[in-house]
Design goal:
Layout: E1 2-10, H1 13-42, H2 49-62, H3 64-67, H4 71-88, E2 104-107, E3 114-117, E4 122-127, E5 131-136, E6 144-153, E7 156-164, E8 179-184, E9 190-192, E10 197-198, H5 205-219, H6 226-260, E11 263-267, H7 271-274, E12 281-282, E13 290-291, H8 295-308, H9 310-324, E14 327-331, E15 356-358, E16 365-367, H10 368-385, H11 405-417
Parallel strand pairs: 8-11, 11-14
Antiparallel strand pairs: 1-5, 1-7, 2-6, 3-4, 4-5, 6-7, 8-9, 9-10, 12-13, 15-16
Helix pairs in contact: 1-4, 2-4, 5-6, 6-9
InterPro entries: Cas12f1-like_TNB (IPR010095), Transposase (IPR001959), Transposase_put_HTH (IPR021027)
Family: In the C-terminal section; belongs to the transposase 35 family.
Keywords: DNA recombination, DNA-binding, Metal-binding, Transposition, Zinc
């Protein structure tokens, strides 16, 4: 089974500067290759990874700052871009910003990475062109290294190893037949169908006020100044604490769910749509004016939703389920909070408040979140018991990997059909 191991690096000043240059080069290759793909699409043409990789070799001979960084990191950037465009489409892939995107690059060949244990707390890894880098080994690797990713989080650099631990998932869960429906909310982060709540406050009121002060202080600084960099670093440290608490809560909650239940059912929530900004509506009686749309209240709700990390909890549960043999599925969330699970009557008036559900038909009374979690579990059991036609349990769609025969044939066909004269003006790597 493939698993990840992440450690904090202890880089020297020279290694830190070189890592920044590698991250900047990978970001430049990503943005240039993405712009090239979009230019091709505007002309009803197509370009793939193989042709861009050939152009990258030519670009390294012209630009020295590309030749000094590890070439495998640049090629891996093109591979990641190709997979992102295949999965999401060329126009939905985002640019990488120097200010908002943390530098990150991957060494794809694990055979070229050497790891040595120095003592009980420290170890070192030899990375191509970066040399020996020390890291705090907080847990054993436990397997063979497949690749390594170096990234920066705030002021600290981390290295993440993809490890093959030779551990196969269990054929059956430790608690066969156990199941739980999960209702994610704002007042209580996670509510289980058996009435158990998982909740944590990630930022206290004082920390929220302090973060607001730091944001105002950052807004008053001039772009590019030393004071702005200092204010941004201070704000980043304050927000990183909250982010680490959220990640820790998601990991612990997912561990409890995956080890306790064989079937875990979540709602399939469109979180991006739920946290969209409220758009003003024009007033029909007064042309040119808009009706009050409660943008302030919607903004507060959006912040509350994003603060709970709903999607992170689901991702952590899916990751932990690989080790316990659990099944994680999602169901349609429509009417789960206003449908009585006793008489099946759908009535919005049954949801008296955030915490009280009282059916207007049969009088069934229960905690609203627990009641919704039971409806989610019922829908999940029905969907899990009836697999889709033609799909076997555990099967998944194969990835669109770079190097497949179809991709190579398409690239060769495009290279033959399109001449340089027809594609004049298209940027090259």
């Amino acid at each position: 089974m493939l698993t990840g191991r992440k450690y904090r690096l202890d880089l020297t000043a020279e290694q830190t500067a070189f890592a920044e240059r590698i991250g900047g080069a990978c970001r430049s290759v990503w943005n240039t290759a993405l712009e090239q793909r979009r230019t091709y699409r505007r002309r009803d043409a197509w370009i793939g990874y193989h042709e861009q990789a050939q152009q990258l070799v030519e670009a390294k001979t012209e630009f020295g700052w590309l030749a000094e960084v590890p070439g495998h990191c640049l090629q891996q950037t093109l591979i990641d871009l190709d997979q992102a465009c295949s999965r999401h489409g060329t126009w939905k892939v985002r640019w990488k910003s120097r200010a908002r995107t943390a530098p990150s690059f991957r060494f794809p060949e694990g055979g070229k990475i050497t790891i040595e244990r120095l003592n009980r707390r420290w170890a070192r890894a030899k990375l191509p062109k970066l040399g020996w880098v020390r890291f705090r080994i907080t847990r054993p690797l436990g397997g063979k290294v497949k690749n390594a990713t170096v990234s920066r989080d705030g002021a600290h650099w981390h290295i993440s190893f993809l490890v093959e631990d030779d551990i196969s998932p269990p054929e059956r869960h430790a608690h066969p037949g156990s199941a739980a429906g999960i209702d994610r909310g704002v007042v209580k982060v996670v509510t289980r169908s058996d009435g158990v709540f998982h909740h944590q406050v990630f930022a206290t009121d004082r920390e929220v006020e302090h973060a607001a002060v730091l944001q105002r202080r950052l807004a008053r600084t001039r772009k590019g100044s030393a004071r702005r960099k200092k204010a941004a670093a201070t704000l980043g440290r304050a927000l990183a604490k909250v982010r680490r608490r959220r990640a820790d809560f998601a990991a612990k909650t997912a561990c409890v769910l995956a080890t306790s239940f064989e079937l875990i059912v979540f709602e399939k929530l469109a979180i991006r749509n739920m946290t969209a900004t409220a758009k003003p509506k024009p007033d029909a009686d007064q042309p040119g004016s808009y009706l009050p749309n409660g943008a302030a209240a919607k903004s507060g709700l959006n912040k509350a939703i994003l603060d709970k990390g709903w999607h992170r909890i689901e991702l952590a549960a899916r990751s932990k389920a690989r080790q316990t043999g659990s099944h994680v599925i999602t169901v349609n969330p429509a009417y789960t909070s206003i449908t009585c699970r006793v008489c099946s009557v759908v009535d919005p008036k049954s949801r008296e408040s955030q915490a009280v559900f009282r059916c207007t038909s049969c009088g069934h009374t229960e905690h609203a979140d627990v009641h919704a979690a039971n409806n989610i579990l019922t829908a999940g059991r029905a969907e899990f018991a009836q697999p889709r036609p033609g799909a076997r349990a555990g099967a998944r769609k194969p990835r669109n990997r770079v190097g497949r025969k179809a991709n190579r044939q398409a690239t060769a066909a495009q290279a033959t059909a399109q001449t340089e004269a027809e594609l004049a003006g298209i940027p090259r790597l």
